[in-house]
Protein: Peptidyl-tRNA hydrolase
Amino acid sequence: MTDTWLVVGLGNPGPEYSGNRHNVGQMVLDALASRMGGKFAAHKGARAAVLEGRLWVGGPRAVLAKPLTYMNVSGGPTSSLAKYYGIDPSHVVAVHDELDIPFNTVRLKLGGGEGGHNGLRDISKALGTKDYLRVRVGVGRPPGRMDAADFVLRDFATAEKKELPFLLDEAADAVEMLARDGLAAAQQKFHPAKA
Structure:
């Protein structure tokens, strides 16, 4: 196995979804791609757009991937790319929207449950393990009685859009720090101390 990282940004394909809360994982990958100075291109062996490079100068090799499938079937492209590049699940990072943490918050974890997130559930099934890293990007809870599925398929509110670039930057920093310093150090930086 290599020490290459596979960073998968979850979302739905197509311009009509690109600004949705559900696509925040792909937005984070766009932020990483612009730092790396590269562009995504279709991968011949997996239904994904990929960018190969280094997360920072002198850093480890990384494959940034945006599945070209719908969110709920993200596992196939993730598993295909992991096999193609010889990447162990411990070096797979799924970047995704998270309803259970407030907007403008980034959390990191290894393994555990999927919290009803069908994209994660499909990745766990395809990889045959839940033991991969997650960068959870908070999108907040739906207002009132709005269905969670409707909420994540809506664009960010106007006030949130002003904060969004900072959130995407913070999540991109979290991906880099995971690869550079490991999960414990990244959690220390991005998780506030319990009072």
Summary: The chain has a mean pLDDT of 95. The CA atoms of residues 69 and 124 lie 16 Å apart. The radius of gyration is 15 Å.
